[in-house]
Amino acid sequence: MYILMSSQLDENYLNNLYTTLNNEKTKLFNDLKNDTEMKHEKFINQKINHIDSIIKSTFKLRNAIIKEKLKCDFI
User: 50 or 6: whose pLDDT is higher?
Assistant: First the structure.
């Protein structure tokens, strides 16, 4: 029972984390669009790439939690 509650909390946390990261990524794209002099293009692109890798890791972890939860449901 605790495992299922914990995985549900983890899943909710990861969903909130994904939403937050997506919001930050949107802000960075807006910053990039507004950077008309292209002074910060490289720095903003690096941040976007880092956020993308964190999002990818978040998805992997969330998928692993869902798979474990499905295994528990079948037992």
Answer: 50
